[in-house]
Design goal:
3 helices, globular, Glutaredoxin, 110 residues, three-stranded antiparallel β-sheet, alpha+beta
Length: 110
């Protein structure tokens, strides 16, 4: 989908290089999220097993660091913005301009 547009988009390879706390904080900012749940797989059985439904922000981020499978995927990053590319067409939101500007971030659709 991106090859024809010759656009460079980076993907978070969370299983190959699990993100640490600083990277998760950066992703939250790029995604435009405050609540870590917005980038977590809350339907993942491990989420329930760990009792994260009532967890606070710090506990959620610690859980993702310890169990990267909880991170929603794929997360596509371009410049100062990111999207959770589900469905895959969401990555096109990063191409609506140069992808390196400030301002509105491409977050979840509501």
């Amino acid at each position: 989908m991106l090859e024809g547009r010759r656009a460079r988009v980076d993907y978070v390879e969370y299983l190959e290089q699990p993100p640490g706390r600083p990277e998760l904080e950066r992703l939250l900012t790029l995604l435009g999220f405050d609540d870590p749940r917005s980038m977590m797989r809350t339907a993942e059985p491990l989420y329930r097993e760990l009792g994260l439904a009532s967890a606070g922000r710090d506990e959620l981020l610690d859980a993702v660091v310890a169990h990267p499978v909880l991170l929603e995927r794929p997360i596509a990053v371009r410049g100062d913005r990111a999207v959770i590319a589900r469905p895959p067409e969401r990555v096109l939101e990063l191409l609506d301009d140069d992808g390196d500007r400030g301002g509105e971030r491409a977050g979840p659709r509501t």
